[in-house]
């Protein structure tokens, strides 16, 4: 019987390396080490991180999709300027058009496994630290993102999921310039738990309405603090 050779490990190593570079650049963007408007030199970053330029390019392309960096023809990548209040309002309006719908369909299509995962996300959100540095509040943001992603996935609608994914990536840019720490954790946890309980109730219109209230709350808090020294809002 012919022996089958093991698949090459190179693609896996490359992905791990790209993820590492992405995480490092994201941390620098979030803590302000890379300031708005600054140039991002691929070769320089590669030398600093002791990697080839390829994972740096891949990481910057991923960050470009979030709006946190932008590529200028013949000039390279730059850190995106701070968003305007109108851009923030527009993003939240778009989320209000998408996420109540995902909540409605998730309530009709989500199973017990979905509800258990949603409960775990809320518990992680509640337990996560929200101290003043990015490494401290990162777990909070990740739990929040997981909650909303679970709802979008359970909605089982390809187009709603695509819209959610696009908006979720852009939300990172607004977090980037909103300060440090989390100022609305207590109210945000209550809002997420209310959505969870609505999902458990099996009443889609209730889940839709409570998700709408949550996004409206995020919108109001974010706009109120956008121009003041403040901390990132739950998203």
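Q: What amino acid sequence fits the structure above?
A:
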């Amino acid at each position: 019987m012919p022996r089958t050779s093991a698949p090459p490990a190179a693609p896996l190593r490359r992905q791990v390396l790209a993820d590492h570079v992405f995480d490092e650049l994201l941390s620098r963007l979030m803590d302000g080490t890379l300031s708005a408007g600054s140039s991002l030199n691929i070769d320089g970053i590669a030398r600093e991180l002791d990697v080839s330029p390829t994972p740096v390019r891949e990481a910057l392309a991923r960050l470009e999709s979030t709006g946190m960096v932008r590529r200028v023809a013949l000039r390279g990548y730059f850190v995106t300027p701070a968003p305007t209040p109108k851009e923030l309002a527009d993003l939240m309006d778009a989320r209000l058009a998408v996420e109540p719908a995902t909540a409605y369909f998730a309530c009709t299509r989500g199973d017990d496994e979905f509800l258990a995962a949603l409960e775990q996300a809320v518990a992680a959100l509640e337990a996560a630290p929200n101290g003043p540095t990015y490494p401290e509040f990162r777990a909070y943001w990740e739990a929040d993102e997981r909650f909303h992603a679970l709802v979008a996935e359970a909605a089982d609608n390809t187009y709603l999921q695509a819209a959610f994914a696009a908006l979720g990536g852009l939300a990172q840019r607004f977090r980037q310039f909103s300060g440090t720490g989390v100022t609305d954790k207590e109210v945000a946890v209550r809002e997420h738990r209310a959505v969870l309980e609505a999902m458990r109730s099996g009443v889609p219109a209730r889940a839709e309405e409570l998700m709408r209230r949550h996004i409206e709350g995020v919108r109001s808090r974010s706009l109120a603090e956008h121009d003041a020294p403040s901390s990132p809002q739950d998203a």
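Q: And what stands out in the fold?
A: The radius of gyration is 19 Å.
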